[in-house]
Design goal:
This protein has 117 residues and is an alpha+beta fold. It contains three helices and four strands, in the order αββββαα. The protein has helices spanning 3-30, 89-92, 97-116; strands spanning 45-52, 58-64, 67-74, 77-86. Strands 1-2-3-4 form a four-stranded antiparallel β-sheet, with no helix packed on it. The longest helix has 28 residues, at 3-30. The chain is extended, with a radius of gyration of 24 Å.
Amino acid sequence: MSLDLYSRFLLALVAVLGLLAGFAWLARRFGLAGRSFTAGGKRRLAVVEVAPIDAKRRFILIRRDTVEHLVLLGTDGATVIESGIAAPAAAASGERPFAALVKDAAIADAAIKDATS
């Protein structure tokens, strides 16, 4: 076999692997699982926070509309710890909690500057 045949095989293999990686990235990026959206494109379900307890268990705070649910996930299944938790006002209005903290810090910083001047 000639060197030309090996190089063409290697080039074709790299091209196919590149296409597979590209399609896998696209599938992960755009979610080919068939997400359903409500009117206006706003999602109703979100994972708010994940807190690992140990190597096998973790708490997950899930929000559906304006209600949050605390779920314990483990190797043996899922257990609902608390249900019907009212979502914080910032989360209910669609504002992200970090943005609310930054806004509060900016207001506090402005108040301190006004008090010192």
